[in-house]
Design brief:
The protein has helices at 2-43, 46-62, 66-79, 84-97, 100-114, 117-136, 142-154, 161-173, 197-213, 217-227, 241-255, 258-276, 278-285, 291-296, 299-309; strands at 181-185, 233-237, 321-324, 328-334, 337-342, 354-358, 363-364, 367-368, 370-375, 385-399, 402-417, 420-427, 435-438. It is an alpha+beta fold. Among the domains are: 14-42; 45-104, Serine Threonine Protein Phosphatase 5, Tetratricopeptide repeat, CATH 1.25.40.10; 355-438, no CATH class. α3 runs antiparallel to α4 and α9 (197-213) runs antiparallel to α10.
């Protein structure tokens, strides 16, 4: 009896232990399930996904697996479009490949999306370094100047950018050659406007804005540099004259520079001369050479002639004969002085007509001749050229069988071919005693 009770007791205890073990096992399983659920939930958080993508992007870049790195960073931006680390990592990935343009673009895009100043600064660093590289490689252009200005527009307090702008100027416009010509602002065909003047003007206007927003001695010096091209000769298309003068006026209103003031006066005189001969070009182009009779007798024209004879022509440079055209002129800077002259047919093949003011002393019985000539444009392929010359002079006119000295006009048409020169001369041209000869 006692043994049976003991056996029953052991069986009951065994069942109780089994139940406890089952409960413990169930509790452990439940705990593991809870932990697993929590872990899965944590790993599924956007921040954790983002961290994993960024980590993968960094590893792939280090391993030079740029395609996988790009995908990882793109995945990161899908999770968080404002992730500064993703934009920075993607830029680093581009830089590692040597794709600086793409790196700059993604940094600027990142700044636009996040307004993070760190991304903007990194962008400026890349732009600045690219400009430095172009200068060091001898590839400095106006595009390099643009990069320096971009840096200052984003970071006005950048202390290095003004100096780099000055270095760009030295590379572009400074030379030790006595006869060096800057041809950046002239067009082979002025109707096409393919030169760099418009780009240059836009850059200088941005410099003006930078200086006005944050004046400094460094930017004042840079602005003065770029306003006055320090080369012996600067060739510029006549249609740009007034725009350049207006640009210098705006620069000078900001910095008040004596050299700029002098250059403005030179440009104003060039524009005045260009306007003065505008009608003559129109008339001569239409074949109305009789207009020259009116022109050479004018006091204003004779003052121009006499100024050259007396070597007192102001900013207009020249002697013997002085060409005028509608396309190209040269600014000549020497000994802190600036002058201008229009290019002759020898200097500029693509002219659309050249007027010559004859500024030599040529007197007849004490009366100075007044002479003007015109050479029309020559079509390509032509092997001859024609020059028309009108003189207003005091000379003998045959009247009633006698030679009488009086003021009269002479009109010469000179044709030059490979065979030689032939001239048709008309004396007392337009008068009642007109005569004509060929030679």
């Amino acid at each position: 009896m006692q043994k049976r009770d003991e056996l029953r007791a052991r069986r009951r205890e065994e069942r109780r232990r089994k139940v406890r073990r089952q409960k413990i096992a169930m509790a452990v399983c439940a705990g593991l399930i809870v932990v697993g659920v929590i872990a899965i939930s944590v790993l599924s958080l956007p921040s954790m996904k983002l961290s994993r993508c960024l980590a993968k992007g960094g590893r792939y870049t280090e391993q030079s697996d740029y395609t996988s790195a790009q995908s990882a960073y793109e995945d990161a931006l899908k999770i968080d479009t404002a992730s500064v680390e993703a934009y920075r990592g993607m830029a680093d990935n581009y830089v590692a490949q040597g794709n600086i343009q793409e790196a700059k673009q993604i940094l600027y895009t990142g700044w636009e999306q996040t307004q993070d100043e760190g991304l903007l600064h990194y962008y400026c660093v890349e732009v600045y370094n690219e400009a430095v590289h172009e200068i060091n490689e001898g590839n400095c252009t106006l595009a390099t100047v643009d990069k320096c200005i971009q840096v200052l527009e984003q970071e006005p307090d950048n202390a290095d950018a003004p100096g780099l702008l000055s270095t760009c100027y030295e590379r572009l416009f400074r030379t030790e050659e006595e006869e060096a010509v800057c041809s950046m602002f002239c067009d082979a065909d002025v109707t096409q406007d393919t030169c760099s003047y418009a780009e240059y003007e836009a850059l200088v206007r941005r410099m003006i804005a930078l200086y006005q927003a944050k004046p400094s001695e460094a930017m004042r010096a840079v602005l003065a540099q770029y306003a006055l091209i320090d080369m012996p000769y600067v060739q510029i298309s006549v249609p740009h004259l007034e725009a350049y003068r207006i640009l210098l006026t705006e620069v000078n209103s900001a910095i008040n520079d004596a050299g700029i003031t002098e250059t403005m006066a030179c440009l104003a005189r060039a524009k005045e001369v260009s306007d003065y001969f505008a009608t003559a070009f129109q008339e001569f182009e239409a074949g109305n050479y009789a207009y020259a009779r009116e022109l050479v007798a004018q006091e204003s024209y004779q003052q121009i002639r006499d100024s050259f004879i007396e070597e007192n022509s102001g900013y207009w440079e020249g002697s013997i004969y002085i060409p005028v055209n509608r396309e190209q002129l040269m600014l000549h800077r020497e000994d802190d002085k600036i002058r201008f002259y229009f290019l002759s047919e020898e200097d500029y093949d693509n002219h659309q007509g050249i007027i010559k003011v004859w500024g030599t002393k040529q007197e007849d019985d004490g009366v100075q001749r007044s002479v003007i000539s015109y050479e029309p444009a020559v079509d390509s392929g032509e092997d001859s050229k024609t020059e028309y010359t009108v003189q207003y002079l005091y000379s003998n006119v045959k009247i009633g069988g006698e030679y009488v000295p009086q003021m009269n006009y002479r009109f010469d048409t000179k044709v030059t071919t490979q065979e030689g020169i032939t001239t048709n001369a008309i004396g007392d041209w337009g008068g009642e005693h007109e005569w004509e000869i060929d030679y």
